[in-house]
């Protein structure tokens, strides 16, 4: 994906796109027969299989925790992060202009898996929503816009904070393993958000949540439409 190079334009874009959005509450992986038929018809006959693999992954991980297969919370969350990160990083990368014929398009996880492609925003959003589905508190998660300095372009990652003041782990499609932010000097934070808040690089300023960002609202509307099928 391509964005203007000036950092102030990134921040201005985030703040100017404020609107009101309603949360999506239904299970992310509860696929109806109509939805499965729709993705098969719209994307590929293999699309439902990919959705069911994702569903099985989420349900198996949830059942393992419920059955006490993983005892310690920190160990459970670490394993959950790695599995979700690896699962979505298998999907091929495509720019929005190539994949969706749009300059900037935020795909739902269903769209990403069904079309079998996505860009950095889609990876980060799919990981964020999957971790929410698995019960990771959203205060530990921030979808984060960064400047990828080596690529000289904007990029998106998901940051996981074990505690509010802890150094976050970075979930990225560019590097397969999770690394602490201090080990990612190639990334320069621009702003971050979750369902509740939006942060500027100082970390102190909160300007509203992801539910107040226009592109996020459009994503929520698509999620709701998928769940109504």
Structural class, from secondary structure content?
A: alpha+beta
Total domains, how many? 1
Radius of gyration: 17 Å
N- to C-terminal separation? 30 Å
Order of strands across the widest beta sheet?
A: 4-3-2-1-5-6
For the residues shown, what is the average pLDDT?
85
SS element count, helices: 8
The best one-word shape is globular
Number of strands: 6
Going by CATH, the architecture would be: Roll
Report strand %: 5-15%
CATH class designation: Alpha Beta
Q: Looking at CATH, which topology would you report? A: C8orf32 fold
What is the percent of helical residues?
40-55%
Characterize the largest beta sheet: strand count, sense, and whether it forms a barrel: 6 strands, antiparallel
What is the H/E string?
A: HHHHHHHEEEEEEH
Low-confidence residue ranges: 1-24
Strand and helix map with partners:
Layout: H1 7-16, H2 33-42, H3 47-66, H4 73-89, H5 96-99, H6 109-115, H7 120-133, E1 141-148, E2 153-160, E3 169-171, E4 179-180, E5 187-193, E6 198-199, H8 214-228
Antiparallel strand pairs: 1-2, 1-5, 2-3, 3-4, 5-6
Helix pairs in contact: 3-6, 4-7
């Amino acid at each position: 994906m391509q964005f203007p190079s000036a950092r102030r334009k990134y921040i201005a874009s985030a703040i100017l796109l404020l609107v009101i959005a309603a949360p999506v509450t239904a299970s992310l992986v509860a696929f109806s027969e109509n939805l499965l038929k729709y993705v098969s018809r719209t994307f590929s006959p293999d699309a439902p299989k990919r959705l069911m693999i994702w569903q099985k992954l989420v349900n198996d991980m949830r059942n393992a925790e419920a059955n006490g297969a993983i005892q310690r919370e920190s160990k459970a969350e670490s394993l959950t992060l790695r599995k979700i990160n690896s699962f979505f990083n298998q999907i091929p990368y495509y720019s929005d202009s190539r994949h969706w014929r749009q300059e900037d398009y935020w795909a739902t996880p269903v769209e990403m898996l069904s079309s079998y492609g996505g860009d950095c925003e889609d990876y980060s959003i799919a990981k964020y929503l999957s971790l929410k589905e698995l019960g990771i508190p959203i205060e530990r998660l921030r979808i984060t816009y960064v400047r990828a300095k080596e690529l000289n372009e904007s990029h998106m990652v998901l940051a996981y904070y074990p505690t509010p003041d802890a150094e976050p782990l970075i979930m990225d499609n560019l590097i397969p393993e999770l690394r602490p932010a201090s080990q990612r000097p190639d990334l320069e934070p621009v702003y971050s958000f979750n369902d509740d808040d939006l942060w500027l690089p100082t970390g102190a300023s909160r300007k509203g949540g992801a539910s107040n960002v226009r592109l996020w609202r459009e994503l929520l509307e698509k999620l709701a439409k998928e769940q109504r099928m």
